[in-house]
């Protein structure tokens, strides 16, 4: 800048358009200083160049700020010449910036009386800056000659006698005002009709509560909020928690943002559970907080009822599960977890098809069809427990229609493994009883003629003229004796077969039989291993127990090839004396296992099919049980006898 820079030239130069320069110059340019050297004005050519560059940068910065203003804005001189205009002013006036800046005056866009009034204001400002008003309502006419009512705001740039003009269409302002009023009405309606209690606090004082909050706390519309705080609605037991929660959140200790549960306090002193969610908001006169409060009494009652129902379901002896048609669990009770051998967490991660045999999934489609048609279905299924154990279940399935947006299945299952065993045992015993009754009825009728035939054969053996037939007579007598033995064995199936029970040790019976057993085993190349534990004396019929042991030992010997080993053991297990006979054969196939104990069922070429039925009948007469465990490494028959005065428990 040169010393000849005049005050009237400022603003006509491009550099003067930057507010940053004006602010620096306004501190130095006084009417009496213009034309004189000043510490704020550069005098050398180099300094002038640097100052010009600084001015250009300031102009760019100022132009960005100027353009960012939301209203039509312009910089005008005292003679109303427009020296700077932003894009919004261009749009409003209909002219381009090049057509406006330095070429148009504000008066050209105004009605004559508005132009005169503004000039008067400018004159008054020269005498007293604060005298004229800063806001005017004018009639602004654009390039197309379309008049529009606008609100003008004039702000003088200090000491430069320039003014910043902003224009806002009254129509748009009114539209904005109406929109604001409409929004306010909508929000107020939303607050007034909200089913949730709403409280607005400024500082420590309540400034607004909606009708639902008044109703919730037993207040009426005449209740004065003055002097009341949010804590008036909170029971003393919850006040500390409500106070500390924002502090913990500010310290980063509680960042969940979840609603807080507290105890509400009504006007009449009664309390009830509430859920509170509070937010900080900024109002024009400072920060405030808004709280949304819900009465959760019914929710808590429902939770308590659900917990009670869950406890009742967990107390049930039967397995209760709820799953969808894809097999995903929605609920499992404690009995179900115990049945399948998993924790609740593990059970909920599994699928119902994972806990049953493959056949279950194959049959599920047909069962699903019946279930959807009838709403209920009862069926039996074999399930797989943890560890590979299998149990038989009776399942009562019910359809729960659209419970959670989809149809679910409620399954009540009962372990009927023992019941199935019992039913099987009863059916077998019924068959034995029937055979025993038949045997008792016909045995004597068969034995009498057989005795006569055997007597005549013995007489015929004594005659010398028939001596050449003695071998044949011997064969006939042997076969008659064999038939008589079968009849004797058959008679042992009778329920009323006499028993001579005496208190004695099963170990002593085994010891007396050992030589006979070893001799029989030696003929087949089998080794006998005997392991006897201390057992109490029990009520036994020695002859029947000998027959039972010999039958089971013979079956074990015949189940193995040569060089096999048969193990005979006695022990105490769960208050019962247990006799076990274990072979090392190939096991019993499932189809054969199902039929074991059925009279006349045998897999031996010369067998009668009465050996095991007789063993079962002997066990029954001794109040004992026979259990079979079989696999690829052999079969074990376990006979468990009840000890007098000791509790009868399951040995499996």
Characteristic terms for this protein:
Beta-Lactamase; alpha+beta; rod-shaped; 652 residues; disordered C terminus; five-stranded antiparallel sheet; disordered N terminus
Short description:
The protein is of the alpha+beta class and 652 residues long. It is built from 18 helices and 22 strands. Helix 13 (417-462) runs antiparallel to helix 14 (470-491), helix 15 (506-523) packs parallel to helix 16 (542-558) and helix 16 (542-558) packs antiparallel against helix 18 (611-621).
How would you describe this structure to a colleague?
By secondary structure, the protein is an alpha+beta fold. It folds into five domains: 7-174, Beta-Lactamase (2-Layer Sandwich), CATH 3.30.450; 194-295, Beta-Lactamase (2-Layer Sandwich), CATH 3.30.450; 301-415, PAS domain (Beta-Lactamase); 421-491, Helix Hairpins, CATH 1.10.287; 502-642, 2-Layer Sandwich (Heat Shock Protein 90), CATH 3.30.565.10. It contains 18 helices and 22 strands. A hairpin with a 2-residue loop joins strand 9 and strand 10 (286-295). Helix 13 (417-462) runs antiparallel to helix 14 (470-491), helix 15 (506-523) packs parallel to helix 16 and helix 16 runs antiparallel to helix 18. Residues 1-44 and 646-652 have low confidence and may be disordered.
């Amino acid at each position: 800048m040169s010393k000849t820079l005049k005050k009237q030239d400022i603003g006509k130069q491009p550099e003067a358009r930057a507010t940053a320069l004006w602010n620096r110059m306004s501190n130095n340019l006084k009417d009496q200083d213009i034309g004189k050297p000043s510490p704020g004005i550069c005098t050398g050519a180099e300094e002038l160049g640097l100052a010009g560059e600084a001015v250009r940068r300031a102009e760019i910065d100022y132009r960005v700020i100027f353009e960012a203003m939301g209203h039509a804005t312009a910089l005008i001189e005292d003679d109303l010449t427009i020296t700077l205009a932003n894009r919004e002013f261009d749009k409003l006036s209909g002219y381009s910036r090049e057509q406006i800046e330095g070429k148009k005056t504000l008066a050209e866009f105004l009605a004559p009386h508005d132009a005169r009034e503004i000039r008067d204001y400018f004159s008054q400002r020269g005498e007293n800056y604060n005298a004229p008003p800063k806001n005017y309502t004018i009639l602004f006419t654009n390039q197309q000659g379309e008049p529009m009512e606008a609100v003008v705001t004039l702000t003088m740039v200090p000491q430069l006698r320039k003014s910043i003009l902003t224009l806002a269409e009254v129509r748009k302002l009114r539209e904005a005002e109406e929109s604001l009023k409409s929004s306010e009405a909508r929000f107020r309606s939303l607050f007034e009709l909200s089913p949730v209690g709403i409280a607005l606090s400024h500082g420590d004082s309540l400034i607004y509560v909606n009708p639902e909050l008044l109703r919730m706390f037993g207040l009426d519309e005449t209740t004065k909020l003055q002097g009341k705080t949010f804590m008036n609605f909170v029971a003393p037991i919850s006040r500390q928690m409500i106070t500390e929660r924002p502090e913990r959140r500010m310290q980063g200790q509680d960042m969940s943002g979840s609603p807080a549960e507290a105890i509400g306090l009504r006007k009449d002193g009664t309390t009830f559970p509430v859920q509170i969610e509070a937010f900080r908001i900024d109002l024009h006169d400072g920060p405030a907080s808004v709280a949304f409060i819900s009465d959760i009494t019914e929710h808590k009652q429902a939770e308590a009822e659900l917990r009670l129902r869950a406890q009742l379901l967990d107390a049930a002896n039967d397995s209760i599960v709820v799953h969808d048609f894809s097999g995903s669990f929605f609920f499992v009770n404690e009995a179900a977890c115990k049945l399948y051998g998993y924790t609740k967490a593990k059970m909920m991660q599994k699928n119902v098809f994972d806990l049953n045999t493959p056949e279950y999934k194959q049959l599920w489609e047909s069962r699903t069809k019946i279930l959807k048609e009838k709403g209920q279905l009862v069926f039996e299924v074999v399930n797989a427990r943890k560890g590979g154990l299998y149990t038989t279940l009776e399942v009562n399935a019910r359809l729960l229609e659209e419970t959670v947006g989809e149809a679910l299945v409620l399954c009540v299952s009962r372990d009927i493994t023992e019941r199935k065993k019992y039913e099987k045992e009863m059916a077998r015993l019924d068959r034995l009883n029937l055979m025993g009754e038949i045997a008792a009825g016909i045995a004597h009728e068969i034995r009498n003629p057989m005795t006569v035939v055997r007597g005549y054969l013995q007489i015929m053996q004594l005659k010398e003229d028939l001596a050449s037939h003695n071998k044949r007579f011997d064969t006939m007598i042997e076969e008659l004796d064999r038939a008589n033995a079968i009849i004797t064995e058959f008679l042992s199936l009778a329920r009323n077969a006499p028993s001579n029970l005496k208190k004695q040790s099963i170990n002593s019976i085994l010891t007396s039989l050992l030589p006979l057993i070893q001799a029989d085993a030696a003929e087949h190349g089998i080794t006998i291993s005997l392991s006897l534990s201390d057992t109490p004396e029990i009520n036994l019929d020695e002859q029947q127990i000998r027959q039972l042991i010999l039958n089971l030992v013979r079956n074990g010997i015949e189940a193995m090839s040569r060089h096999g080993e048969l193990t005979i053991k006695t022990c105490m297990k769960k208050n019962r004396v247990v006799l076990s006979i274990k072979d090392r054969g190939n096991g019993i196939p499932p189809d054969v296992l199902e039929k074991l104990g059925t009279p006349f069922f045998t897999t031996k070429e010369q067998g009668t099919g009465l050996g095991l039925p007789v063993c079962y009948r002997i066990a029954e007469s001794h109040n004992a049980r026979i259990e079979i465990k079989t696999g690829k490494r052999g079969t074990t028959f376990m006979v468990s006898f009840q000890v007098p005065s000791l509790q009868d428990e399951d040995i499996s």
